[in-house]
Amino acid sequence: MKFEINKKLKLSLIILIIILLSIISFMGIYVLDKGRMVNKVNNYLLGMDLEGSRIIQLAVNTSKRTIKYDKDGKEIASNDTTTTVERQEEKVINEETVLTSDNYKTVKNILEKRLKTMAVNDYEIRLNETNGNITINIPENDNTDIIVAQVAYQGKFEIVDNDTKQVLMTNEDLKSARAGYGQTQTGTTTIFVNIEFNKEGAEKFKNITNMYREVKQTNEETGEEETIKKQIALNIDDSPILTTYFDEEISNGILQLSVGTSSASATTQELQESLTRANNLAALLNNGKMPVVYQINQNQYIASEITNQNIAIFVSLSIIIVTALMIYAIIKYKERGILASISLIGYIAILTLVLRYTNVAITVNGIIAVVISTILNYILTLKILNSEKETFKKEILKFVLTLVPVFVIAVVFTFNNWLPIFSFGMIMFWGVAISLIYNLSITKALLGSK
């Protein structure tokens, strides 16, 4: 009797877990955040064939810039409107010597690394090796505008003397950059980028933190003591990000750069946008400086040919097919068919939940992979239903052996950069792997109880 109660308790617990996973996967988890309901479950990452895309065309910058000098021959900062200009000259942004096919290819490789670091898995980059023009195609989503705003940056990093404009540190001194956030005592959230310097850079930065400080000195004319702040400027692509001085020596080789502060009333979406900007800045610093300066010539949205109505029809048909498969199992296998149907729902819930958190860009081919994975799992479930309890594990392993070619193809596709195949391969990989683990545990436990 006690054994029967334990079996029923175990069965009820498994069904409850499947129900909870299904609710989370299909409906989400909504919590109140700053006065509005927010789904805490990750959204699906959709490919360009479903979400639409943004075409960005980058062209080699052929313009000139005006450099102004003061009476001492020092370059005047572009934002300095008080210093008297003694002379000025024009220089081309890109010298002829940098406009080479090898440099264009280097730029393309850097852009690919940036996009991957920015978690853009679905992209296309085409390079015209003759004129250096680059066309980028990325999905349209909430982060697209942020990516577009930063994608054309050269990535030139400099720490300079704020007065003399002497370059103190460059990209050569960088080791890595990482975005993060922290809570202050006042309840605000600070978004920052930790810039870590290499061995030589750390020593340079240590010396800078000792030199550029707030110092007191006596004014020769008045004899009064005055405070002088010797400052550095941190520039990205010659544009100042911040101007600062240091209170103490920094010997760990890390500069924490604040890129935004959000109040306690900021929404999760606002915080995420700020963090995305910080992550993109880190991606800019981590992947090197482009040898050629580019400008955006085109920024165009291309709508998907697949409409929401098409997706709704496909989803409805899928639900009908899955329902029909479950009805068949229930009619033929009665109570065990009900448990098998519950198991199938749980498998779909877990697979789709995994896809939300593995950053797999879902394309039309990816959806086909979900359908195939579900059908294969259903076939495996039928094999278990038709087998004796003692041979459950054996039947599962036999079926898995027949799927080895499918699994190998999925792995091969996973290492292909062409997204439709990559999406298909990744989803098939997860589909087969989850099916094996899920049926050896959940399905076996469900059907083994009857």
**Which series of helices and strands comes N to C?**
HEEHEEEHEEHEEEEHEEEEEHEHHHHH
Number of domains: 2
Topology, number of strands: 17
The biggest sheet, with number of strands, parallel, antiparallel or mixed sense and barrel status, is: 4 strands, antiparallel
Low-pLDDT segments, ≥5 res: none
Strand neighbour order, sheet with most strands: 6-7-3-17
Plain-language structure description:
- The chain is α+β, with helices and mostly antiparallel strands and 450 residues long.
- The protein folds into 2 domains: 2-28 and 305-447, Multidrug efflux transporter AcrB transmembrane domain (Multidrug efflux transporter AcrB transmembrane fold, Up-down Bundle); 53-302, 2-Layer Sandwich (Gyrase A, domain 2), CATH 3.30.1360.200.
- The protein is built from 11 helices and 17 strands.
- The strands form 6 sheets. Strands 6-7-3-17 form a 4-stranded antiparallel β-sheet. Strands 9-8-14-15 form a 4-stranded antiparallel β-sheet, covered by helices on one side.
- Helix 10 runs antiparallel to helix 11 (419-447).
- The longest helix has 50 residues, at 308-357.
- The model has no long low-confidence stretch (mean pLDDT 82).
Key traits:
450 residues; four-stranded antiparallel sheet; Gyrase A, domain 2; alpha+beta; 2 domains; elongated; Multidrug efflux transporter AcrB transmembrane fold; 11 helices
